[in-house]
Amino acid sequence: MAAFLLGAVLLIVQPQIVPSRPAINTKAETSSQSVQRDLLKKTSQKNDFKENIHSNGSCQQLPHTIIIGVRKGGTRALLEMLSLHPDIAAAENEVHFFDWEDHYRNGLQWYINQMPFSYSHQITVEKTPAYFTSPKVPERVYNMNQSMRLLLILRDPSERVLSDYTQVFYNHMQKHKPYPSIEQFLVKDGELNVDYKAINRSLYYIHMQNWLKYFPLDHIHIVDGDKLIKDPFPEVEKVERFLKLSPQINASNFYFNKTKGFYCLRDSGRERCLHESKGRAHPQIDTRLLEKLHEYFHEPNKKFFELVGRTFDWH
């Protein structure tokens, strides 16, 4: 009976209308631009940078490419797979330079200091999944490097919402803290709660519009996160071509681990898998509610497909 009532109250749920361009607060934007100009003026000259040079000849440098998102889209898996290539030098941790004000105020010298040591022929990569959904980030990245090549990994929006919830749920469980059921987040006053942050992060169309204001589509390579999970090699091959890397990664670098239920990596005889926190089972959810989630994303997904000129096998 409860399931029937839940289905009844969710009969009509429509996505919010997405504006073609976000409204602009001129005063706020002018202030933001002023701050950015001061930041760039502070650290834009090459001679302003203090080069941290290692005794082996490597040094820290600004990233040549950034994995901008999306959260719970497979960014860690993508970075680990890319790291198989000898010409990739990857930052170990999420830097959060462009989206955290305390970090951004430190300037580009601080940003460089967070990068790994690399050689001149290598591509330095950093990943911070929150960049994709942070409104200020595209302009800030553009002001640093207009020719930056960006990697964006996406998966089925509904599945991403469930994975988003699952991560936070387990974080609370590990700290022995209670956490509400996913239904309590997805349903509000008998309707789909479109204010739930995890749902907003899956509205790829809105966030992609913001990035395309500053970067052309051919500077943003979209990795199909669902395909990367099922068959990683073809997706990694495409990334190699996008970054103009020599083809060094091959199918033998990947093997399916039946115990874990996903692909692991093999590099020079050494095998490694992603952390146990990856690939966790999603919570059980009422079928009608899941269908409403699929319906909600249907129109935004269509707009996203039109925006990027390709389709994905999403619900």
Care to describe what's here?
- This protein has about 325 residues and is α/β, with parallel strands linked by helices.
- It has one domain (about 60-310): P-loop containing nucleotide triphosphate hydrolases (Rossmann fold, 3-Layer(aba) Sandwich).
- The chain is built from 13 helices and 12 strands.
- The strands form 4 sheets. A 5-stranded parallel β-sheet has the order 3-5-2-6-9.
- The chain is globular and about 60 Å long.
- The model is unreliable at about 1-35 and about 45 (pLDDT under 50).
Secondary-structure blueprint:
Blueprint: H1 2-9, H2 26-43, E1 59-60, E2 65-69, H3 75-82, E3 88-90, H4 101-104, H5 107-113, E4 117-118, E5 123-127, H6 137-144, E6 149-154, H7 157-174, H8 182-186, E7 187-188, E8 191-192, H9 197-201, H10 204-212, E9 220-224, H11 225-230, H12 232-242, E10 254-257, E11 262-267, E12 270-272, H13 287-308
Parallel strand pairs: 2-5, 2-6, 3-5, 6-9
Antiparallel strand pairs: 1-4, 7-8, 10-11, 11-12
Helix pairs in contact: 10-13
